[in-house]
């Protein structure tokens, strides 16, 4: 019984490490995308405040197939 429990613990630890690594990788991808995001509306050139959460909720953020990000403010149809 003890050996079986030890094996299960090792398997669970391995799964947790894998999930943690995957989560970290996803966070890095999202972080890079946010850092490469434009700073202004693509149509009217109004400044996008990356530190304001409401901007993320109100503005239209479109990510293209090749990772290109387009921002549109609420005034321009976002």
Structure in words:
- The chain is rod-shaped.
- The model has no long low-confidence stretch (mean pLDDT 89).
- The protein has a two-stranded antiparallel ribbon.
- It has helices at 2-35, 53-58; strands spanning 60-63, 69-72.
- It is mainly alpha-helical and 78 residues long.
- The termini are far apart.
- The chain folds into 2 domains: 1-36; 38-78, no CATH class.
Output the keywords.
single chain; 78 residues; mainly alpha; 2 domains; two-stranded antiparallel ribbon; 2 helices; 2 strands; 51% helix
Compact description:
By secondary structure, this protein is mostly helical. It has helices at about 1-35, 55-60, and strands at about 60-65, 70.
What portion of residues is helical? 40-55%
Q: Number of helical segments?
A: 2
Q: What is the succession of H and E elements?
A: HHEE
Structural class, by secondary structure, is mainly alpha
Strand content: 5-15%
Evaluate the radius of gyration.
Answer: 21 Å
């Amino acid at each position: 019984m003890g050996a079986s429990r030890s094996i299960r613990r090792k398997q669970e630890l391995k799964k947790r490490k894998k999930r943690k690594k995957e989560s970290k990788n996803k966070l890095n991808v999202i972080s890079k995308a946010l850092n490469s995001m434009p700073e202004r509306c693509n149509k009217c050139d109004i400044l996008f405040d990356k530190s304001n959460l409401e901007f993320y909720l109100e503005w239209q953020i479109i990510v293209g197939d090749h990772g290109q990000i387009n921002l549109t403010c609420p005034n321009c149809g976002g």
